[in-house]
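Subject: design request, 172 residues
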C-alpha cells in the first residue's frame, strides 16, 4: 500500500518539541515530494483584549496605539490584532528560514482561536494529508489542568497525526 502525502501541516508554538516537528515535517515532505503548511495559532484571548465597540477601545486616545501599527492612526475595528497577525506571519517566515535547511515547498498561515480547534479547522479546510506536531507529554495533574492540544488533534483529525516529543525520559 502506497501513501499519497501531498500536504503536511506542522503547527508551531516555538517550543523545542514543535521545532523537532518542523524538522520531521520537512524531512517527510522531502521524501514524499509534499509541501509543508506551517501554522501558528494566536490564542483567542488575545483577540478579546479590546473587542470592537468596547469602551476601552473607543475612548482610548489614538496616541496610545502609536508604534503598534504601521502608522500612528488607528486602522480598522481591531488594529492590535491585525498587527499581531502580521507580526506572527513575519516571525513564522523568519523561523522557517532560520531553521529549515532542506528546500521544501513551504506555506505559512496564522490563525486566531483555540489551538486544537484551529489546527483541526485548517487541516480540514486545506485537505492536509498528514499533521506533524510536537507534544509536551504532560501527564497527571498538569495534563488534567492544561489539557493536551496534541491529544485533541489526534482524536479528531481528518488525517494521520505524527507526534514528536523530545523531552521524554529514557525507560529503565
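Subject: RE: design request

Done. Sequence follows.
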Amino acid at each position: 500500500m502506497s501513501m499519497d502525502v501531498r500536504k503536511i501541516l506542522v503547527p508551531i508554538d516555538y517550543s523545542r518539541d514543535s521545532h523537532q516537528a518542523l524538522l520531521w515535517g520537512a524531512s517527510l515532505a522531502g521524501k514524499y515530494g509534499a509541501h509543508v503548511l506551517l501554522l501558528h495559532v494566536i490564542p483567542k484571548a488575545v483577540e478579546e483584549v479590546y473587542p470592537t465597540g468596547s469602551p476601552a477601545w473607543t475612548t482610548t486616545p489614538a496616541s496610545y496605539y502609536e508604534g503598534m501599527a504601521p502608522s500612528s492612526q488607528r486602522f480598522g475595528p481591531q488594529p492590535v490584532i491585525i498587527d499581531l497577525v502580521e507580526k506572527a506571519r513575519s516571525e513564522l517566515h523568519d523561523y522557517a528560514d532560520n531553521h529549515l535547511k532542506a528546500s521544501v515547498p513551504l506555506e505559512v498561515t496564522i490563525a486566531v482561536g483555540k489551538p486544537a480547534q484551529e489546527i483541526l479547522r485548517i487541516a480540514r479546510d486545506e485537505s492536509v494529508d498528514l499533521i506533524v506536531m510536537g507534544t509536551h507529554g504532560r501527564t497527571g495533574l498538569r495534563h488534567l489542568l492544561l489539557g493536551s492540544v496534541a491529544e485533541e488533534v489526534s482524536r479528531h483529525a481528518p488525517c494521520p497525526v505524527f507526534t514528536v516529543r523530545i523531552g521524554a525520559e529514557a525507560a529503565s
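The first strand starts at residue 7 and ends at 11.
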